[in-house]
């Protein structure tokens, strides 16, 4: 792992929040097209960064918060915990983090990695805002690989999960990942998503429970559960099919492969719910759009891919179909997005 360094011109000394113009970071969310849990069980998964972003802005000392901003800046307890993590790794940081404002376009607890996007944005914003007291204009230069490793270690201590999300939002684009039982997965390949395709997110407005799900799956793994083994085999094959469909620009094959991944999640691991299945059926009837659950934990959002030229009509059809029966569900149009640091995909893993 590359070591963080002072920005050019910085001198040794204690570090403090930047007092000049506010800094920050903008990070995409991600959809999992296939391979939930395989990033830490072992196997292939496919992620796609989406332009539903999370932004963190460091406010200069004394600056008033934006109108309507949450009292904690929208970052909740994460800001203080990320700062504490960084203080153990970057010498000279002060006892308190800079004041930040956070905003997210992705629905929370929906399986689109909005929490990871916030954590990564905090790591990036804080490392760039932490400068020597002497007043140098630069912060810490933390390589993308180190940023991913730190964000993964931070979340692993809380959820005991994998590293797909951290690589997905940092590298961006379409990633084929090879999972590892410990540490970050390996980026096997990165590709740009076809410009002629767009993404439709159907948020069920039911929150998933990541912690409980991961505890359950780890218990299955320890017990040598046969259904978990079957899930890994079927989902790994679905991930390979998803990757080949995108690379071959075969939208029909992509929908079929994502549907196979969803059925493995539902039938072998119980990750879906009656409501999510009802929404999937509705999308097929109303817009001929195959949807797949993104993320695990018994709730969250479904994602589908359609021609970009048809996205507005597909969204309109789904919204009409939801009607009064599903007043809380939302249909969100999205496109593929670049990541915070796409160059990470070209850097060799340590």
UniProtKB/TrEMBL annotation:
Keywords: ATP-binding, Cytoplasm, Kinase, Lipid biosynthesis, Lipid metabolism, Magnesium, Nucleotide-binding, Transferase. Residues 244-321 form the GHMP kinase C-terminal domain. It comes from the Bacteria. Residues 1-22 are annotated as: Disordered. Pathway: Isoprenoid biosynthesis; isopentenyl diphosphate biosynthesis via mevalonate pathway; isopentenyl diphosphate from (R)-mevalonate: step 1/3. Gene3D superfamilies: 3.30.230.10, GHMP kinase, C-terminal domain. Residues 10-19 have a biased composition (Low complexity). This is Galactokinase. It comes from Streptomyces yunnanensis.
């Amino acid at each position: 792992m590359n070591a963080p360094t002072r920005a050019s011109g910085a001198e040794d000394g204690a570090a403090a929040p930047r007092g000049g113009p506010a800094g920050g970071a903008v990070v995409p969310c991600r959809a999992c097209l296939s391979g939930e849990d395989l990033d830490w069980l072992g196997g292939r998964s496919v992620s796609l960064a989406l332009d539903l972003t999370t932004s963190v802005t460091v406010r200069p000392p004394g600056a008033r918060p934006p109108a309507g901003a949450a009292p904690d800046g929208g970052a909740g307890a994460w800001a203080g915990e990320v700062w504490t993590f960084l203080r153990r790794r970057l010498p000279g940081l002060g006892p308190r983090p800079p004041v930040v404002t956070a905003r997210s376009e992705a629905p929370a607890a929906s399986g689109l990695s909005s929490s990871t996007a916030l954590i990564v944005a905090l790591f990036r914003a804080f490392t760039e805002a932490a400068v020597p007291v002497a007043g140098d204009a630069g912060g810490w230069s933390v390589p993308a690989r180190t940023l991913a490793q730190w964000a993964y270690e931070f979340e692993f201590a809380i959820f005991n999960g994998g590293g797909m999300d951290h690589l997905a939002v940092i590298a961006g684009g379409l990633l084929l990942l090879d999972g590892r039982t410990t540490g970050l997965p390996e980026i096997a390949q990165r590709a740009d998503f076809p410009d002629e395709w767009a993404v439709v997110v159907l948020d069920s407005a039911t929150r998933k429970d990541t912690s409980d799900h991961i505890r359950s799956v780890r218990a299955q793994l320890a017990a040598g559960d046969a259904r978990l083994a079957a899930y890994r085999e079927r989902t790994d094959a679905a991930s390979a099919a998803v990757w080949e469909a995108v690379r071959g620009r075969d939208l029909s094959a992509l929908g079929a492969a994502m549907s196979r991944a969803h059925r493995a999640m539902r039938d072998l691991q119980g990750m879906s719910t009656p409501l999510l299945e009802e929404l999937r059926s509705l999308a097929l009837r109303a817009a001929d759009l195959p949807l797949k659950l993104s993320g695990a934990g018994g709730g969250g959002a479904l994602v589908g891919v359609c021609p970009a030229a048809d996205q507005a009509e597909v969204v309109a059809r789904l919204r009409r179909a939801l009607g009064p029966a599903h007043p809380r569900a939302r249909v969100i149009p999205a496109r593929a997005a670049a990541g915070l640091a796409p160059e990470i995909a070209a850097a060799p893993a340590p």
